[in-house]
C-alpha cells in the first residue's frame, strides 16, 4: 500500500484522517459494479471493476487495470438496475497488487466526502454510518 506525499498533503488539507487504524467512517461492504473514468477527460480511459467497501469518505475497488496513485477519477457505482448510479469524484490514494488473483485494489478518497452519499444509500437500503468510537 503506497500513499504519495501530494495525496497525503491534499487529504490533510481537506481534514481527512489518514490513520487506517482510526478511520472516522465505518466501511460498509458493498459489492457493486464500479465504472471509473480517468480525469481530466483528455486522458480518456474508462476502467471497470467491483467495489469492496464504501464509506462517506472513500471506496475500495478491485480491477484488472493499473492506475497511478494521485490519479483523478469519476466513480459511478451501480448497485441495482432499479436505481440510478451513485457518482462521486475522487483520487486514488493507495494501491495494492493482489498477485494471487492478478488484480489491483485501489483506495479512492472522495473529493467531497458525503456529498449526498448517505442519502443515496438510504434510498438503496444500504445506510452508511459514522463510528464515533473509532475517532
Short description:
By secondary structure, the protein is mainly β. 12% of the residues lie in helices and 39% in strands.
Q: Runs with pLDDT <50, length 5+?
A: 15-22, 129-135
The CATH homologous superfamily name equals: predicted glycosyltransferase like domains
Secondary structure tally, helices: 2
Q: From the coordinates shown, what is the CATH architecture?
A: Beta Barrel
**Could you tell me how far the N terminus lies from the C terminus, measured between alpha carbons in angstroms?**
22 Å
Strand content: 35-45%
CATH class descriptor name: Mainly Beta
Explain the overall architecture.
The protein has helices spanning 5-13, 117-123; strands spanning 28-29, 33-39, 46-54, 58-63, 72-78, 86-98, 103-110. With 135 residues, it is mostly beta strands. The protein has one domain (5-129): Thrombin, subunit H. Strand 6 and strand 7 form a beta hairpin. Residues 23-115 form the PilZ domain. It comes from Lamprobacter modestohalophilus. GO terms for molecular function: cyclic-di-GMP binding.
Amino acid at each position: 500500500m503506497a500513499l504519495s506525499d501530494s495525496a497525503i498533503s491534499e487529504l490533510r488539507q481537506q481534514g481527512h484522517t489518514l490513520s487506517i487504524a482510526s478511520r472516522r467512517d465505518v466501511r460498509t461492504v458493498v459489492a457493486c459494479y464500479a465504472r471509473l473514468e480517468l480525469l481530466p477527460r483528455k486522458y480518456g480511459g474508462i476502467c471497470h471493476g467491483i467495489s469492496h467497501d464504501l464509506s462517506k469518505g472513500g471506496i475500495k475497488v478491485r480491477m484488472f487495470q493499473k492506475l497511478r496513485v494521485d490519479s483523478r477519477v469519476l466513480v459511478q457505482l451501480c448497485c441495482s438496475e432499479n436505481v440510478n448510479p451513485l457518482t462521486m469524484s475522487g483520487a486514488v490514494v493507495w494501491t495494492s497488487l493482489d498477485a494471487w488473483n492478478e488484480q489491483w485494489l485501489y483506495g479512492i478518497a472522495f473529493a467531497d466526502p458525503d456529498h449526498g452519499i448517505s442519502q443515496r444509500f438510504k434510498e438503496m437500503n444500504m445506510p452508511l454510518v459514522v463510528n464515533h468510537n473509532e475517532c
